Amino acid sequence: MKKLFLFAVIILLIVGGALVIRSRLLQGQQKAGLQVNSDPQATIFLEGKHLGQTPYSNKELKPGEFTLKLVPESEIFFPWEQKIKLNPGTLTVVDRQFGEIEESSSGEILTLETLVNKNLLSLAIISTPNDVIVKVDGTRRGSTPVSLEDVTEGDHLVSLSLPGFVEKEIKAKTILGRKLIINAKLAKESIETEEVSPEAKKEAEEKEPEKEKEPERPYVTIKETPTGWLRVREGPTTNDAELTKVKPGEKYKFLEATETGWYKIEYEEGKEGWISGKYATKYE
Hints:
Helix content is about 15%, strand content about 50%. It contains two helices and 22 strands. The protein has helices spanning about 1-30, 200-205, and strands at about 30-40, 40-45, 50-55, 55-60, 65-70, 80-85, 90-95, 105-115, 120-130, 135, 140-145, 145-150, 155-160, 170-175, 180-185, 220, 230-235, 240-245, 250-255, 260-270, 270-275, 280-284. The strands form five sheets. It has a seven-stranded mixed sheet with strand order 4-1-7-8-15-9-12, with no helix packed on it. Strands 21-20-19-16-22 form a five-stranded antiparallel sheet, with no helix packed on it. A four-stranded antiparallel sheet has the order 3-2-5-6, with no helix packed on it. About 20% of the residues are buried. The model is unreliable at about 5-30 (pLDDT under 50).
């Protein structure tokens, strides 16, 4: 009887140990990967949590849907924010090229999803804007959104083009048992400003009001910016809170400067803040 009891205990220990090992293996398989690149460098936030700066790679993240936010170091670029999906056992790749305005920015998100049939693979491509011409390895395969089931396993070059937009080329790798989803955004081509005739220029100059008096020095004049305005912040970094915005051509009392090129100004009587010296001219 004792032998029978001892044998049962041993069996239970073996089964329990196997279950623990299997559970740990499954937990390991549940990890998701994220790789983020950007130009210029940006600070990364996932669901509001600071992860670091680009380039970034981590294969030990929790799967699920999250809000990814990239905040460029340079003041002239807008932060970018989008929902992404981190699937277990796969790597999600995010690449972002910041432009001076949102329309001139581009990027792509590459996501892998597991297929039921491990002997199949597919490639799906969606884009902003829609109806972008898709070429895979130089062969036209339709327009976005498009789903391709007959691509071979391995490395491919996906080209996306549309008149009025900058062509984008994406290196992608398809894997058996996985569906590769490419979500791309194309940047608009730069639009040349319409040339103003000498007569129109002269007429505009005649309508200009008298030049205002120069303020007491030292002061700064806000330069032209891609956005048409410049942020005034609580401190001399892009991470500091925004107090207000100032416009090109406006003049403000200069208070001090940092070695990193930030200017402290008085933007209203009794109110002070910091601006990027890159977009201001100082008069002493």
